[in-house]
């Protein structure tokens, strides 16, 4: 997550996770602002002023990290990243909306087949191990899903020889 370029991150958010374009821009820009060492807000992003005046639900006011993400759970503090975006289809097993007095909890939260926690890590240094990466991770960087299935996934499982690929 620390080294993915903004354009690739935006693409992964829209095509792999399934976030609509405007919201994907907010998430990608906010992640970029969280990681960069300055207090300059990118378009659609968020910096310390935003988090201190209007923090994400469940957090007291705080400042942007302005540095590398150490733990993937930091993403939950970043503007636009909801538990559903973070956890993907399993978010209801990991997170329950808080009970708010006088307000209904947001039960309309969209679910996503895959979450950020399934696609990224904070400790890889920008490298992907093709021998262990999930099909979703590989498909997020290789534009041809057939190549991923035929040439990588099946070969890892010993189901094809090197010749067809």
Short characterization:
The protein is an all-alpha fold.
What does this structure look like?
The protein has 165 residues and is mainly alpha-helical. 39% of the residues lie in helices and 0% in strands. The chain has helices at residues 6-17, 21-35, 48-53, 83-87, 91-94, 116-119, 135-141, 145-156. The longest helix has 15 residues, at 21-35.
Question: Keyphrases for this structure?
Answer:
mainly alpha; 165 residues; 8 helices; 0% strand
DSSP summary: helix tally: 8
Along the chain, the helix and strand elements come as HHHHHHHH
Q: In one word, what is the shape?
A: elongated
The proportion of strand residues reads: under 5%
Give me the secondary-structure topology:
Blueprint: H1 6-17, H2 21-35, H3 48-53, H4 83-87, H5 91-94, H6 116-119, H7 135-141, H8 145-156
Helix pairs in contact: 1-2, 1-7
